[in-house]
User: Fold tRNA pseudouridine synthase A from Gracilibacillus halophilus YIM-C55.5.
Amino acid sequence: MRMKAVIRYDGTHFSGYQIQPNVRTVQEELEKVLQKIHKGQFVRVHASGRTDQGVHAMGQVIHFDTDLSIPTEKWEQALNTMLPADIEVLQVSNVYDHFHARYDVKEKEYRYIIVQGKRRDLFRRHYVYCTPHQLDVKAMQEACHILEGTHDFSSFCGSNNNQQDDKVRTITEAWIDRDEDEFIFRVRGTGFLYNMVRIIVGTLLEIGRGERLPEELETILQVKNRIYAGDTAPAQGLYLWEVFYE
Amino acid sequence: MRMKAVIRYDGTHFSGYQIQPNVRTVQEELEKVLQKIHKGQFVRVHASGRTDQGVHAMGQVIHFDTDLSIPTEKWEQALNTMLPADIEVLQVSNVYDHFHARYDVKEKEYRYIIVQGKRRDLFRRHYVYCTPHQLDVKAMQEACHILEGTHDFSSFCGSNNNQQDDKVRTITEAWIDRDEDEFIFRVRGTGFLYNMVRIIVGTLLEIGRGERLPEELETILQVKNRIYAGDTAPAQGLYLWEVFYE
Assistant:
């Protein structure tokens, strides 16, 4: 029986989603708990994709297979009782046998939270990116508009992912909202390259500070070279917000 | 030269304010940094009072003595550069030689944040207290009113502090505000007993849930016995908000 679960996690104390030796990862915590529930039998967990160290998730999706006949509400309860305080299962459902959390993704939404203020907010230091600079939200909105559509995003791809040949991706929606001192960047697309959202945010910040014009984004896309985009924005402001399936 | 500083800290990863062997405390971090600034010479830090493990501060006040002639803005900078990310100095000023951060306190304000919701907010688990119960804010407000004034608060004193004989304290203001699902309890007074605010909040929660009537607070005050008050509310919702001097 294949189970799908929507989970959220605080990425602060994880070395990312994906399992790796000698560090704490979300995947390992999930698999450890499932192994306990299955009385020692290993259960592989598949996610919609990985998230990096310090990146949070509000709606990560995973799937796993089980022989146990536990009602879905009990699954949620059992997992939440056994999982550490920084991972939470929001919903568990029974899906058809060919559902795949990664291969069946239709779109993903990420959000990035920026707080503008002279002082960084001590209590949100792991959850937002603080900047002392004034940001021109209108210029940033213009830039968002240029990002929408199908483009080769080579300029917005971190160097860890050189093996990926095709860097054409489609952003269906990109926009930025301002609520007093808080700026929320939301981006929805069919696929994202390594560090793509964080490099986009780093570039938007330069535009917001007036160091670049919004239309420079067009040139940056055209040159297909990482060095022309802005810095990679820090991990702690980024959230994998929602994963969409058919 | 005596310096006064207003500081804030995230209490999550501290075993409280006061220095103790083998655990991480706010006082030790402050004294370590001051010792470095004074080239190895120990500098004692005095605070307005201690805070317990997990309790936060938005406006704790400390004082220390120094021979160094550093301008006040440089003090702020130097301290913030060297302090860990969960302590921040908001303001440093030069005060008269007899100022004392603890003895000269006129009033203190504490706040306690409660969030009502079916699910606890994963990202605020260290910063608020989450309850799934509906709370009657009007009943809680009535109870706050009863607390105001000068009373013997023996019923609201944690057992760690039995050596304190006089348990008469004055609460100058106690009120609770609701903002959607968030309840903020604010209390201002000339002095507080050990765990007093958390026991008051625990009792207010019972009143908010309808398990007790607001007027029972009068009886609880009269009996002067800790067992008649509510549970001690968890540390993570509590903030030492502001300390007032002459």
About this structure: Residues 117 and 167 of chain B are 35 Å apart (CA to CA). Chain B touches chain A at residues 8-10, 56, 85-86, 88, 90, 119, 122-123, 125, 127 (CB under 8 Å). Chain B has two domains: 2-95, 106-245.
